[in-house]
Amino acid sequence: MNLKRFFGALLTILGIGGLIYTAVIFAGTGGETRDIKTLVIYGILGIVFFSAGISLVRTTKDES
Q1: What is the pLDDT of residue 51?
Q2: What angle separates helix 33-59 from helix 3-27, to the nearest 10 degrees?
Q3: Distance of alpha carbon 3 from its chain centroid, rounded?
Q4: Which terminus of the chain is less hemmed in, N or C, by CB atoms within 10 Å?
Q5: 2-26 burial by CB neighbour count: b if 16+ within 10 A, else e?
Q6: For position 31, what pLDDT does the model report?
């Protein structure tokens, strides 16, 4: 297995985890400023990791 594809899959899984964690925090939020900051931080990191992982997996060619 190509190392770039493995790293892309890892980033994708981390991104999905970040987005799920954001959804869990959103479901239990009380609307405080601290909750909103946490939502924004984890949401942005989740989106960045997910999109970078998907992009890395798509652009890496299999040369076995």
Answers
A1: 96
A2: 160
A3: 19
A4: C
A5: eeebeebeebbebbeebbebbeeee
A6: 75
